[in-house]
Amino acid sequence: MSPGPYGCDGGILGTTIGERGRTPLDLDELVERWALLKDEQVLVSGKRGATRLGFAILLKFYAQ
User: Fold this and answer.
1) pLDDT per position in the chain (64 positions), as tens?
2) Which domain holds residue 31?
3) In a domain, 31, yes or no
């Protein structure tokens, strides 16, 4: 499959993206990467609805 317009192969989280060559993540790696820590839960708890989910995802994404 050729990369899409954003350099992504259309696979699941953690699969090959552009030239980075990431390998698929197993369940333990996904939990380690995306589970919220206690201090992050406090930050997210101040948000409501879809804002809460979006904030949590951005928080974990940029913390990597």
Assistant:
1) 555 555 555 555 555 555 566 677 789 999 999 999 999 999 999 999 999 999 999 999 999 8
2) 27-63
3) yes
